[in-house]
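Teaching note: in complex prediction, the entire set of molecules is handled at once rather than each chain in isolation. The prompt given to students was simply: 'Predict the structure of this complex.' The entities are:
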Amino acid sequence: MDGETLRLSERVPQAPAPTALISGSPDVELVALYRDHRLHLVRLAVLLVGDQETAEDIVQDVFARLHGKWRPGVTTLAYVRTCVLNAARSVLRRRAVALRRAERVTDLVDSAETAALIGESRREVLVALGRLPRRQREALVLRYYLDLPESEIAEIMRVRRSTVRSTTARALARLLRELGDEQDESGENA
Amino acid sequence: MSAIEDRLRDAMAARARTVRDDDLPLPAPRAGGGRFKIAAAALAITVTAFGLVRLAAPQEEESTLTVSLSAVESAGRPVVSVFLCMEDDVFASCKSGEATDAEREKLRRAMERRPDVESVSFEDRQQAWENFRRNMTDKPELLRTVVPSDLPEAFRVQVRPGADFSAVARAASEFPGVSNSVDGACIADRLSAWGSIKRWLGSKDECSFGGTGR
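The expected output is the structure of the full assembly:
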């Protein structure tokens, strides 16, 4: 089927890039949203999936899907963030299936350069963050990276506010435990 | 608690800062200009894929073939198609015969209640046949062999943009009276450049879920 798929997708002509845009058309809004928020959305995705390449793919894919679907009041930044969250979940789920294990990121620090840039202490935090269950990690990223209020996190994650509160509390407690344990261990070893 | 919060903030901000802006352009619309083309190409693929199966087992797989044909889109958007059991259906979940009215209503209500579902529409055999005929004008040999009663009744489930199609398709497949359900976004995805990358990365997307309900 793969050969056939490739052959057929080659036959589907590529659409021209949206160059001649009429002012006020939905695509103008999409272009503006893309221009203003792409980088931040990629950064959000990096904290969810761990590596920049996948994060960029996710954001590109989300915007490719949004073409022609702009609806005023519906296609908001919160909505696009939800799309990024969902796409990140799908990626993690596929990885989990491929590797037959839970939906965790492999490592939120994907290269030696990145590790050197951010330093050991931050790296510890990110490793612990990467070990959290998916939803707990999502809640922490939205709360402490994007600094969003509870109501908006609830909207993006499509859960109740009380769930956001309890998930965040559990995640913090777990993070504290993991980081505390590591410190104890290193203390014992020293 | 606030020390850990500060550490988190600081670590995440630092990680985010390592992501530099590399000025990628806004991607072109997904898989070419016309959504119809996606549908047409995807249909052609399904026909090819199942056509091969059909050579191997001509009688048994006939309805599997027809089932897959109109599964991809409705009104230009990908949908999840949930097919109901017919009499003498080949699917394992349809051993006890045609889907009953109660099963159909239960499925419809459950789908409509899901927050990730926008709308649910029912397609009877006649409508399925009309769609099939419209899509298959270039396949006269199929048009000659397939009659309306070969096509199953189906629900076309419009999933909210951004929601997880495969979760909807999988959930639907678990209801009694369902022969199988097809994730139209997954099929459209297989044709996109991103789809090829994902396959290359070794992901195994499941586009079709066999019924498990009875």
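Point out the following to students. Chain B touches chain A through 53 residues (CB under 8 Å). The CA atoms of residues 70 and 144 of chain B lie 17 Å apart.
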